[in-house]
Every structure is written in C-alpha cells, then in structure tokens.
Predict the 3D structure of the following.
Amino acid sequence: MAQHDTQQHFGKVAVLMGGPSAEREISLKSGAAILAALQESNVCAEAIDVGVDVFEKLQNGKYARALIALHGPLGEDGCIQGGLEVIGMPYSGSGVMASSICMNKLMTKQIWQGCGIPTPKYRVLSDSVDEDELIAELGMPMIFKPISQGSSIGMTKVNSKAEIAPAWVSAHQFEESVIAEQWVEGGEYTVAILDGCALPVIRLETPHTFYDFDAKYQSNDTQYHCPCGLSAALEKQIQALAVHAFDATDASGWGRVDVMLDKNNQPWFLEVNTVPGMTDHSLVPMAAKAKNISFNELVIKILQTSFKEDSEIISKKLTGQISAVCGAT
C-alpha cells in the first residue's frame, strides 16, 4: 500500500500507552515499539501517554482511531474502551465487556467452567483464611493471585502452610480480591490469537518458580521454544481449545491465552490477555514471526482490528434510531 493510501486508509492514529497502572513501564515499551512500526509503515501515528485528559486530547487532536497499548487496570479492563465508545472512536482489540471479563481472573474462570473449558480449581479469599481448609481443598503447592492484575504482578507460589499469610498480603496489596489456585505441575505454554486464528504455540522455560514478571520482561535466561515440541495433533488440539477459550469470553481481534500442560498432557487454561506485551521479550511477536509475519505486519494487523468498531458503532447508532422511531409510533 502506498504511503498516501496507507494514511488515508487508517487516518491519524493515536497509540495509547503508559497510564497509571503497575504495568506502566511495560506499556510505554510496548507503545514505543508499536509507534515505531506504524511510522515505518507510513501510518500517521502519534503517542499519547494516558492521563485524566486523554479523551480531550483525542478529540482535540482529530484522531481517526486508537491503537491500545495499555496494560493492566484502566487500560485493559474495559475502562478506556468504554470511554472510546462514548466519543465514537474506533479502537483495536476487544470491546468493553470482553476486556472487563478477561482482566478479572475470577470471571474468566467462571465462564470457562460453564463452557467445560478446563481451568485449575480455586478459592476466592477474604480477610480471614482458614489455612487448613484451603490446603484440604486445593492441596500443595498452590498459587496466590490478585484477581485483576497482569504481568504476574502480586503472584506467589505457596509451598507450605507458613507461606499462605505472606502470599495473601503480597497479592492483597494490589487489590482486595485475591484467589488461591491449585498449582499445575507441568509445562507452561501460550497461544497467540490473531483474527480468530491461533498462531504457533510457544513453550516457556524459565529457571524461575514460574513465568513471573522478571522472567517475562527482564531476565535473559528465559527460553522460548517455537516449535513448542508437542506432537502436531496435540498442538492442534491446544490451539483449538485456546480459540474456544478466547471466544468464550467474547474477546476479539487479537490476544493471548496462557495454558499449562500437566504430566498427562491435560491442558489447564489460566487466563486471557486482551492487550499482550509488544516488547522485545514479548510472546505474540515471536509467534507471529514463526508464521512469517514481521513485527510491522503484525502491528498493522492489530490496527486493522479497529475497523470492526466502525461497524459496531454504526450498528448501535442505527439501533438507537430504530428504537426512537418505534417508541414514537
């Protein structure tokens, strides 16, 4: 596509990054990489570090659409998506409801349980934790997680009764809602989803206890295996289940589904990321590369997902007009 055609096709694009969440620094890195890719692809794009005046900036800047590179609460949980819908601006990735569901690990697991998608047993924790009862229900080890944080923030593996209270405190400092989840011993895998299709599965290997924040973004000893080493039949099965898990939450456009595979090759689905990282350590670009999709091409495909919002916004407006007409008759 020629430079003029590209700019005319997408219009002026706002890359939304930063924001106030605990994942701000990762978001800034993702946003910077995305912005560079768009500009190299001759898209007229500008960065916006998201603050309280973000919607004013978007309207005053006469942007045609937004590519969301925000991670964590307020950016990945439906809040920014809802604001963009209010001002009528198309945006990349999942909509309001799906973003809210996927950011909330409890809601995601409840939907999966209803759909028969395998996910580890869990317990929602309050201020008072009956440690013996928790151990009897989930066994040891287990893992504690804040319900609505990303990038493994606040997560702790618990190997003994004495570690329960400190793990709860670690998760609780980020939010009141905490879940304890049955630990799955086995391989860690992730499946990127793009335009309704699963990209090649990646197996993660880290000397850390699990694929935590440091292993994701800072460590140089994390290994990423793609091809993942599974049989073709098993990889295809996991890809199909990952798409099902993604669709069950109403997620759309692009994202990533994380899964564990136990010693019996039983997959256990953990969570959906609706705005995965796009840094030099990130998984979606790795999976795309395995399908011969360059980083710049990937970013354009992600931006392309914003066009579905055009039709949705038009549909809502038409529905409103029809309702008004029906109400007047």
